[in-house]
Inverse folding.
């Protein structure tokens, strides 16, 4: 019983530390690939570039984030009641691991996860 | 004790003079002229030449409109996916601090006039929330803008299809005084440099002409 408890605790520790590493990596990748346009704090830029922080669009469509990061976006998008229509460039060279790290960072650090 | 006196003298001198003036950047020429028997030496500083652009309202914008005004110039393009949004975020801070001053202007020059038409520039300014009358978004023939950037504002703009957005350009915010002289170049992507620019604009306004 004690052995099982220790093993479970160790697994939990491992999961926590790997998600911390992923968030740190996500932060760095966000700074490199996204922050110029969306801002260091994810607040966007007026009515030109949509926010990523507390964004109802992401909250409602978290599954689309990865595709948007890789393929970019064009056309109209409604975020928090404001219509945006700027072109977001694609990131074809980004790896799956990097995309996942950015996605997790945006979801968790910018409050886009439902409680 | 004697040492302290020597330290005190320059300190008092600085207090009397206030903070030193901003440097005047660029080339300069020395001209000697005669006034009676006296020889007078004048320094001629490099200045921004006369220019003519089209603004976001479709009107002609010339250097006459910034005569005796302080302004900040920058070079950008609307579809820029790299440094321009960060520069504009910082310029919004400058505009917020000084935008109501009718003796201060911001001139943002597009380096992609083929795409950035009058209506595109108007829409960009509108979405950026620029509704004061002293921030102008300007367009002209590409070569004309690039030459002015390089020769007068110490900025660079190059077409490069391998770069994001198709252009490489410098991210400087260039401070110009009432006599159209360059008084400072600040990294427009850096928040601390932007704060320094705001402070220097205020210093320049207080500078005796």
């Amino acid at each position: 019983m004690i052995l099982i408890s220790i093993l479970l605790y160790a697994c939990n520790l491992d999961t926590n530390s790997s998600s911390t590493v992923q968030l740190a990596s996500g932060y760095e990748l966000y700074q490199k690939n996204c922050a110029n346009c969306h801002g260091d704090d994810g607040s966007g830029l007026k009515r030109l570039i949509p926010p990523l922080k507390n964004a109802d669009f992401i909250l409602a469509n978290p599954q689309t984030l990865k595709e948007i990061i890789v393929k970019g976006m064009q056309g109209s998008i409604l975020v928090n009641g404001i219509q945006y229509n700027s072109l977001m460039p694609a990131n074809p060279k980004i790896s799956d691991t990097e995309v996942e790290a950015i996605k997790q960072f945006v979801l968790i650090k910018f409050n886009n996860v439902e409680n | 004790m004697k040492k302290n006196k020597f330290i005190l003298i320059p300190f008092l001198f600085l207090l009397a003079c206030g903070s030193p003036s901003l440097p005047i950047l660029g080339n300069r020429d020395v001209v000697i002229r005669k006034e009676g028997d006296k020889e007078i030496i004048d320094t001629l500083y490099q200045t921004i030449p006369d220019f003519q652009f089209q603004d976001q309202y479709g009107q002609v914008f010339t250097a006459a409109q910034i005569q005796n005004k302080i302004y900040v110039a920058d070079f950008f393009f609307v579809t820029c996916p790299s440094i321009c949004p960060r520069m504009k975020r910082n310029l919004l801070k400058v505009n917020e601090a000084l935008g109501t001053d009718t003796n201060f202007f911001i001139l943002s020059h597009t380096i992609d006039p083929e795409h950035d038409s009058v209506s595109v520039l108007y829409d960009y300014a509108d979405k950026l929330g620029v509704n004061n009358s002293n921030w102008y978004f300007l367009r002209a023939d590409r070569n004309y803008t690039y030459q002015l950037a390089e020769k007068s504002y110490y900025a660079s703009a190059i077409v490069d299809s391998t770069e994001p957005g198709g252009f490489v350009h410098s991210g400087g915010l260039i401070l110009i005084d009432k006599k159209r002289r360059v008084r400072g170049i600040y990294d427009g992507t850096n928040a601390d440099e932007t704060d320094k620019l705001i402070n220097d604009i205020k210093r320049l306004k207080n500078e005796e002409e």
Observations:
- Residues 47-206 of chain B form a domain with the Glutaredoxin fold (CATH 3.40.30.10).
